Amino acid sequence: MIKRTLIPLLMLSCSPALAAELTSMETRWLTAGLSVINYAKHDLKLPVDITVQPQARANDVPVAVGYQDGRCKLVLSLRGNPQAEDILGSVPEARRPLMIEAMFAHEIAHCWRYAQGAWHQTPSGFAQGGGAQPAQSLQQTRREEGFADLVALAWTQQRHPEHYSDVAAWMRQVRAPAAAAVASVESHGTMAWLQLARTGDVFNSRLPLFEQAGSLWRKGLANGE
């Protein structure tokens, strides 16, 4: 049975029939990500719609975000998606909500960058990269993934500091080249940033969430990422 707190959120983009027919996995994932969704919608005032795919397509990741007509589209693709199980395969059942929450925070970071008009932009003083267009595009994507990973870790340090090491270790495992389960190793190779955040102490809790991540992100850029 779907939790009452999820219903208003799903009504924003899903039909009542679909909301009533959520699978147990979809309910678990949405419940785990609810605090992030509430933060995005109510604290950040981000325009977020939630869509639940009736069937995952080949290569769909479990949760992703896009930007269309000025709104972020948070898409869950869990049905028939082996990645939904595989990505959490090494995580004890009791701790899986923490990893799912981090994934939602990662996607909301993308939404924030879109809404800020900063997508694929770097701070002043950092080159976008040169050479052939495909190589430049990979670098831009990797930088966005690095920023979003750091936001997910800053969120974890802020909300669940006692579990930071577990989430950080899991993210490094997911991002390790041998375990890459999303898109391409090159475009999602964020280890240079994850290595900067092995402990939650690197985040300045006196700063807003995205500034905490941005400080470390710029350090990675300065290191040549």
From TrEMBL:
Protein's UniProt name: Peptidase
| Source superkingdom | Bacteria
The uppermost taxa in this organism's lineage are:
Bacteria, Pseudomonadati, Pseudomonadota, Betaproteobacteria, Burkholderiales
What are the entry keywords?
Answer: Signal
Q: Where is the signal peptide?
A: 1-19
